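Two proteins, back to back. First:
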Amino acid sequence: MPKKLPTSIDATQELLSGDGYLADRPLSTVVYLALKLGRPLFLEGEAGVGKTEIAKVLSSVLDRDLIRLQCYEGLDLAAAIYEWNYSAQMIEIRMAEAEGVDDRDRLQSDIFSDRFLIKRPLLQALEPHAGGPPVLLIDELDRTDEAFEAFLLEVLSDYQITIPEVGTVKAAEPPIVIITSNRTREVHDALKRRCLYHWVGYPSAERELAIIKARKPGVGDKLAEEVVGFIQALRGEDLFKSPGVAETLDWVSALNELNAIALDPATVNDTLGVLLKYQDDIARMEGSEAKRLVDQIQSDIRLRAAE
């Protein structure tokens, strides 16, 4: 029996938080509406802010299958929808010839049957699933080209795919569709119009601290507070790529493994590669800059504690 969808924004927020995803009110609202209206949800934002995680959490809390289409440059329909197992078809043809089968219509029907069809993510998502319609994650759509976007319009409009040799496959119930983009290029407006849209930004300090406590409960309060203060300050610097929530959690885990109970400049310098993924950013922040930020956030925390 499929789990019921949440019946309110508050219920959606609670549902997501039950699996450790602390969504703010606007994000909870758009997720609720996407589920309620059966519309695809298009999420844009910087890498590492939790766009992909939303699909994973929905799959977990709703107990639905997660089907992921990881996009990349040159993605074609054979990799996204289906292809025929040509080698197996050729073997079938050779065997039929050896057995003297001369009914061409029957042979064609046999080799284009379901057992020779290799189903890719989009076709899999349209099929019935025991636990209810699956969660279809179309991840990093901005990596594909406009031709693939154009095809996706048809799929998202009617939730059906036409296979010339078989016919049209149409979903009895539409899947829950989550589309993500890191905005390396603009996605066409025609596709966005078919979706509900939300920009997933960096969390506030309060929410990021809550995320750490929910996802890394073994980390001490002092370290967690200093980590959040440092990363929030770091995002205000002129960096090529600011750290996302994923890097925050990785850094907290790394510091915890090093038995750190508070930040110090030496440890920060040694672990900047966990937070920053470009050498120019690391070079900019290591040494005196790292010490300046550590001193600044520790001073701010002491002042708040004294108030």
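And the second protein:
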Amino acid sequence: MLLDKIKTLAAQHQAENIAIRRYLHANPELSYQEFETSKYVQAQLTAIGIPFTVIATTGVLGIIEGKNPSKRVIALRADMDALPIVEENQINYKSNNDGVMHACGHDVHTTILLGAAKILWTLKDEFEGTIKLLFQPGEEKNPGGATYMIRDGALENPKPQGIVGLHVHPGLNEGKLSFRKGRVMASADELYISIKGPGGHAATPHQTVDTILVAAQLIQSLQTIIARNRNPQNPSVLSICSIHGGNTTNVIPSEVKLMGTFRAMDEVWRFQAHDLMLQQAKGIAIATGAEIDFKVDVGYPTVDNEPMITEAAWRLADAYMGKENVEETEKRMGAEDFGYYSQVIPGCFFRLGVRNESAGIVHNVHTPHFNIDEAAIEQGVGMMAWLGTQL
């Protein structure tokens, strides 16, 4: 039975896959700088015998053809970049690159796809269709490496009927998977705001434009837009996360800069909110005499799991993991550029549990102590290979 063969191979390759993950973890590279990581992936695929092309500068696109290659085409995706974080884990595979860390698990994702690729190549005479392996750069930085992979033809010639990706989930115990149909992750747009006006002495505010006060008005009014214009059943978040202006107690500054993020689960509301924010800024500028430059840097779209492929993947996960080990995942206001793929073809983005409280593996992604229970690698490898043969 194919499922049993995949499980056996995933177990047999586990030690090797852990070694791959530890090498990648110790040698992280930032978004769009994954040159050595890309070379490593290419070397691994070459050793297996899998043909590939290099696209999107550091991206790698592998192809595995089973029986009747044109009967079905499925894409499997992993991201490769790391974050500008100083690692604080005391482990023997700690990051060798100062200030760079695989704090979001992309080392795990790359390892899992490489491990699945080896199984799929071994079993290529036992399933039908073609499997495309997408090793993607730049998931952590706008405009998202997925856009470059798509631009360079990752979803063409042949075009997949669907795409699958996974993400480590430190809130879910090792040994568990989670899925959700429909909207599962938010869009993410960056906000850059500059408020300017004639500054001056704090004792004579009538001779200035109080840019600090204008900034406070704008921040409050932006929150009102989200609170009073959004359907309460439609999740959305606006957070101003940076304020820079002034450097002493008695001078009103001539400029205040704000930065923040806006996230939504609905693409129509997302762009309506952009218009409302720009209108609000324009109105406050007129009312206060300030000059307000409000830039919305449009980022990743919502990750919207297509119901049919997600239902199929969920049922396959039940068969592989046991129904008791597969849960419904929560909606998350975090963002993922996997959403670009799911705008083009049906997509399923699911979660892999990596938490182990008894071992102290409890820290969230994007933190200096993030780590995983490496037993999850075997489950991720097997699941990706299983889905690749069955979807």
